[in-house]
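S.,

Sequence below, as promised.
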Amino acid sequence: MNRRNGSKLAGDHDSLQMDSKATEQAPNMEQKNGEIMDSEEVENGKSEPIVPLAMDGDVTAPDGGWGWVVLVATILVLALTLAFPSCMGIFYTDLQTEFQASNQETSWVPSIMTSVLHAGGPFCSVLVERFGCRATVMLGGVLSGLGMAASSFTHTIAELYVTAGVITGLGFCFSFQPAVTILGHYFVRRRAFANALSSTGTALGLCTLPLLGNYLHTELGWRGSFLVLGAVLLNCCVCGAVMRPLGGPRHRGQTLINHRPLQLEEKKLKGRMRALWAGLMAAVRHHMAFDLLRNNLRYRVYAVGITWMMLGFVVPLIYLVPYATAHDMEQSQAALLLSILGIVNIVVRPPIGLLFSLPWFKGCHTYVFSAALLVNGLSNSICCIDASFPVLLAYVVTYGLSMSVVGSLMFTVLMDTLDMSRFPAALGLLAIMESVTLLIGPPLAGILVDRTGEYFYVFFACSATVASSAVYLMVSFYWLDRRDRRALKGQQVPPQVPPPKPASGNNLVPQCQYRSVPTEGDKDKASDSETGDITCL
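The prediction came back faster than expected:
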């Protein structure tokens, strides 16, 4: 009896030691089958693993249902984020006058904002994998709102670089990229159509934000306008709240009280910090997706072309209002030009998305995208003709039509070049590359204006930059498609021709001749069979 009790106590002691070891290893995050599990959350009742959307291959995208709600939320997020830096031109002259800054110094504000919007991609991917798209979008809404609100209290242009540039731009990044990522998981069969509809969010922002900004500027000045716009940007939190994961809501446990000793808690905290730092470094290396840039030639070509394109793609939107007002146009008319550009995008993008989602255009997205980009680049030269309202109206209509196709197919072409599970990492690395040219584009244009005193040189330079990137993409992808077709033909094995059957059923020995002897029933056919059955191998 004592032996049994002793063995039972020993077994209980061993089990307690195993539980203690498991408890000490609790801070470590384990990754298994594409799921990240925090053992601390498991013990506290949060037994549901954190499933990153980019690695979720078990859940089928609904292509509808709640996806339409996510699509509407994505449209609003893109309207509040991607279109916002282009509308800073409404306040360009006021900022220049308030801080006594040159064109180069003033242009750094939208430049830093746009650059940080794209450069924060890898950090955004880490947050998406750890906390999900919903929480990341809501965090971005808080940051962007606080950044614009703080910008209304700045006293130097350098402070504006930090508040409106870095903080607001980082909030835009945390809201924009997870929204695009979760939309790609909700739609597969209708992905081209969903991306085209979501890209109307940028057009919606271009249509409404200039009018709103001009009204606020007239009533409240630029400081009051920034404060109100900060409150408007908080709506990204509402949009993020509806972006629920495809795996469904997480079920939280009921045990929330921790009864561990204090020393064990200290060890757990140290282990958690080490695991968090190691996980952060590994996640940054993983989400930079340098392996795609090294091994995927199509992605490399696309990334280089888009990076070069961004040097002059958004600059005309920033300088359109200053260019028009510098030639004695009313600021309300100049803001109306941006709104017309947004209206054209809203009207054109949905049918463009429906059209290019048809099977006829399968495999042609890249060439349509490159052709539209070429037209977009050449349209900037229209501004060099004159600065009157009819000429600029023709410019924004042409620019808006081509921009609609470019915006509708930009993410579709990227998704066509790689597997969807690597899309967040590919988008993060592409955003880092874009951020460099987005950062230096507007200041270079500002230097050009300061030295020449004319704005039309900016539009001419943007025309050459965007058109050259379009030609590069078109020629490169044509060469890649031609190479792949040749490789496919080389891998095709010609069909095997079956060997001819011998005229006789007898086994033949090489280099032997024989004559079949007809039977009694074959005497009538003896002459024919003698001729036909002589075989030489």
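The longest strand covers residues 29-32.

Coffee later?
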